[in-house]
Amino acid sequence: MRTLIRAGVVVPATGGRTVENGGVVIENGRILDVLGARTAGEPFAGRIVDVPDCAVIPGLVNIHTHGVSPSPLFPSGAAALPEERWLGHLDRHLAAGTTTVLSTCGLGTMAEIREADRRHAVHVRGATAHTPGALAAALAADGAGLGPAHRASTVERMLEDGAVAIGELGGGQTLGGGGQDLVYLPAAIRRLTGRTVTQEQARGLKEAVLGRFMDEGSGDAELFAARAAEAGLGDVPRDELRALVVGTVMPSVGHARDGIREGIEAAVRFGVPALVHSAAASADLIRSLLSLPRARGTVIAGHVNHTSHTVEEAMRLAEAGRDAGWHGEASVFDLLEGRETVRTREHWDALLSAPGLVDVLATDYGHDGRHDPLIAGVQDLIDAGHRTLAQAVEMATSVPAALIPGLVDGGAMLRRGAPADVVIARRDDLRDVRAVLVGGEDVVRHGQVLAGVHA
Ligand SMILES: [Zn+2]
């Protein structure tokens, strides 16, 4: 049966266009036609869905996600999430209009990615970070989720087996970032002292010893003493505590840097897109890699708005990346709604209001998987005046699809022949997702995932 969705506005996500009072015709799971106002109003033989207060947009594409498959979690190769959690993450992506995700944990097998794809209505695609340095970094930081198949794999084999990108190259867990502050450093302090420190306290201790750039020569003994006292560790011998910080954070850092270099070289060699963890700890390395010849291969700097940079540093690095032909991805994290990990929108606003620094929106993981929805990022760009409706939608649909060939069948546009992966959302606030279709099938109604999206 044919269905016509008549909407207040149709956003095809191609050419910066919007179609007022347009329509989208769906048949056999595919888009049969996109109609202008006049034809959409003509008699139609089939089911008509009238949503005059809504926008119809392509299903969103999220190229920076973690915890969406049974593979090892994060670039640190941590133990996989239990099934109900990764399926739950996919539910949340879908309920908010995302129909394709790229798993950027990077160290799983394609069998695990295919398992997630088969088990859920969201299209799950895989990236690979199986370089020697990245694997060594994971084993140094954690590696609890890495089995023999993960350790033995290579980027080349993963690409042959269907991985569509290389990444995430580096990560907070292996580069002395947020993952260290949240999990590994507090755990090490607990083992040594029996005491619990917060993420902020762990970060404070780490930065007093290693600075923001994970440099052993940049310690500040006085600051370290003050922060140790604040964290309730004033009685722990200072040398011992310092050695613990260095010994917990640093073993993976050098390997992770090697992994970033190897991954970008592989992207150039194989002509495949790569996603790189852009943060203070990787900034100098990224600068040195910007000059690599990129006759083939696309490099995407992940979360150019990472708050380990100062706003100035983030701007300068993103400009250098843009000038070298790299692409910039801004992550929503939880900076718009949750505000557990990122409590400022300064970086986001500065980067998005400058021309050409951000091409793509994604989410990354947020605090323990509680990231804001990608569609909230799209809506925010419109509300803040950074982009038009059409531009904002393209940054989370057709642009990421074009950057990563093979990621989305049909290119995440509303056009004839493309799969009917479609979102219907309130026009004046896209976060109000009324319905989502995948391959023409209803999978979300009024923000609720329907039974049957899990296989
Ligand atoms: Zn990252």
UniProtKB/TrEMBL annotation:
UniProt cross-references to InterPro entries, sorted A to Z? Metal-dep_hydrolase_composite, Metal_Hydrolase, Metallo-dep_Hydrolase
Question: Gene3D superfamilies of this UniProt entry?
Answer: Metal-dependent hydrolases, Urease, subunit C, domain 1
**Record-annotated membrane-spanning stretches:** none
According to the lineage, what is the superkingdom?
Answer: Bacteria
Q: List the PANTHER family.
A: ALPHA-D-RIBOSE 1-METHYLPHOSPHONATE 5-TRIPHOSPHATE DIPHOSPHATASE (PTHR43135:SF3)
Protein name as it appears in the record = Amidohydrolase family protein
Show the taxonomic lineage: Bacteria, Bacillati, Actinomycetota, Actinomycetes, Micrococcales
